[in-house]
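Board notes (copied after class):
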Amino acid sequence: MILSRRIYDLDLPHRAVTVYIYLCDMANKKGECWPSTVTVSKDLGLSRRTIFRAFRDLENEGLIKRVHRRRRAGGQTSSLIRVEVDKNV
């Protein structure tokens, strides 16, 4: 997936930029991925709380959209994350 150049024009914390780049790398051709916060945390060496803050930062800027998912038995599973694609790239 192509990284949106818009990420560099925004005044976002380093954590958000790092997580956005990670999500772009993990996303499929549709811009979707579903890594757990535990996986992102381990891969980037950041706390889960920092990952949640980065997700919030990115959602507030419209760079990602999280869709919470549930298992058939009712338990929670990782969220589907849609990474916004820069149409001008």
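Comment from the instructor: The domain at 6-83 is CATH 1.10.10.10 (Arc Repressor Mutant, subunit A). The radius of gyration is 13 Å.
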